[in-house]
Design a protein that fits this description.
By secondary structure, this protein is mainly alpha-helical. Helices cover 83% and strands 0% of the residues. The protein folds into two domains: 37 residues, no CATH class; 48 residues. The chain is extended and about 45 Å long. The relative contact order is 0.06.
């Protein structure tokens, strides 16, 4: 892969990372200070959320590859992944 291809591939994640950054900057101190939760508990809560993501992403990838929908395979994965997490 040349440099342009690598940058194009990684640029897709930039908007979601930029949108998630305020959550880590503003919500973590709010949970720890205003709600009275300890910093370690807040860290564990956010870690468990990311760990659940680590477990569900491969499963959703297999489901997307195995059961493509008529709207394209990506629609199926997003819909059922969010349904599963709720």
């Amino acid at each position: 892969m040349n440099l342009f291809q690598r940058l194009s591939y990684t640029a897709l994640n930039f908007p979601t990372s930029a949108a998630g950054m305020p959550m880590f900057i503003f919500i973590l101190p709010f949970y720890a200070g205003d709600l009275g939760l300890g910093l370690s508990l807040v860290g564990i809560i956010f870690f468990l959320g990311r760990f659940a993501d680590v477990l569900t992403d491969p499963v959703m990838g297999v489901l997307i590859d195995k059961y493509p929908s008529k709207w394209g395979s990506i629609s199926f994965g997003y819909f059922y992944q969010h349904l599963f997490l709720c």
